[in-house]
């Protein structure tokens, strides 16, 4: 039966797959060098209080300026980085760079805001993640309360491990949010037990909130639940005034989306969105 298995593999492994595998391997090799060559950079997407309209934070989003392929969005390399393990050094670079920017802005006299950083599964599984975050905050000189770490529901699947990890992070004083909320394994049990501060409603629910009664019901229910659990709630992917009005009506705390701004380079965030401290 060994021969048969071989045949099957041989037939299925066609030219298209070969190309894809080659480009995958190439990209992976390129990524190893990209960190040293400074090809990664961050954009920041501002987040706003829906009640006051004030900018209250921003999410750091990584981009790769690939020498041959041009600008690559995270969906084209984060999964690869996750598979190869490169996500660990890349994730640390993102964390450090995001904290540095936030610290610099505070030193320049802008009103302090929170920077949110996405964590990957591999990073979240590191036993010494909290120590690393602590070291970065100290090195950069940013107070922990100005850093928020975004995890996804799937990372909390093993609830005991997640509880330990999140407690260690919370002890530092950073905030924790659940990203893309509603799209992963939804267990109400972890909402009850894990030390989280915020739910970010996935943009797939916000997208059709005015067209699809089910999406409206889901957004409304998540928001109400967040209020009862004393969690903050942010809507992702707010693109229209109608969506914004709906979300305000639900007393959703914060919003992020193209209606306010796309992710922008650091200097644009600085010139267009950060507020100068009075006096
Ligand atoms: P995410 O964390 O859910 O980030 C929000 C994504 O939604 C961003 O895409 C942002 O550009 C996009 N977005 C924001 N507002 C709108 C809107 O109104 N409409 C639409 N259509 N899209 C909107 P981006 O930058 O391409 O990032 C995609 C994902 O890649 C992120 O989703 C996150 O999961 C991952 N990612 C980005 N940066 C990092 C990173 O530094 N580390 C890790 N581990 N993952 C990252
Ligand atoms: Mg995110
Ligand atoms: Mg998200
Ligand atoms: Mg995501």
Automatic annotation (TrEMBL):
Keywords noted in UniProt: Membrane, Transmembrane, Transmembrane helix
Domain EAL: from-to ranges: 24-277
Organism domain of life: Bacteria
Signal peptide positions on this chain: none
Protein known as: EAL domain-containing protein
Source organism of this protein record: Paenibacillus haidiansis
Entire protein: shown range: 410 to 688 of 688
């Amino acid at each position: 039966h060994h021969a048969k298995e071989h045949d099957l593999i041989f037939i299925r492994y066609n030219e298209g797959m070969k190309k894809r595998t080659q480009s995958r391997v190439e990209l992976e090799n390129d990524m190893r060098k990209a960190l040293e060559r400074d090809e990664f950079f961050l954009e920041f997407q501002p987040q706003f209080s829906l009640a006051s309209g004030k900018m209250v934070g921003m999410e750091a989003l990584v981009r790769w300026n690939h020498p041959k392929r041009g600008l690559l969005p995270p969906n084209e390399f984060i999964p690869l980085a996750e598979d190869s393990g490169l996500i660990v050094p890349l994730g640390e670079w993102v964390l450090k760079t995001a904290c540095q920017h936030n610290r610099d802005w505070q030193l320049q006299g802008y009103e302090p805001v929170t920077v949110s950083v996405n964590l990957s599964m591999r990073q979240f599984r590191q036993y010494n993640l909290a120590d690393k975050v602590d070291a970065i905050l100290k090195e950069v000189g940013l107070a922990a309360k100005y850093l928020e770490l975004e995890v996804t529901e799937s990372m909390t699947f093993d609830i005991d491990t997640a509880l330990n990890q999140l407690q260690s992070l919370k002890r530092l004083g950073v905030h924790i949010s659940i990203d893309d909320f509603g799209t992963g394994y939804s267990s109400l049990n972890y909402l009850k037990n894990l030390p989280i501060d915020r739910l970010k409603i996935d943009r797939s629910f916000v997208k059709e909130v005015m067209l699809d009664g089910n999406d409206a019901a889901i957004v409304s229910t998540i928001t109400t639940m967040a209020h009862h659990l004393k969690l903050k709630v942010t809507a992702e992917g707010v693109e229209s005034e109608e969506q914004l009005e709906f979300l305000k009506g639900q007393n959703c705390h914060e919003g992020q989306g193209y209606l306010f701004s796309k992710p922008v380079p650091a200097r644009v965030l600085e010139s267009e969105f950060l507020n100068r401290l009075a006096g």
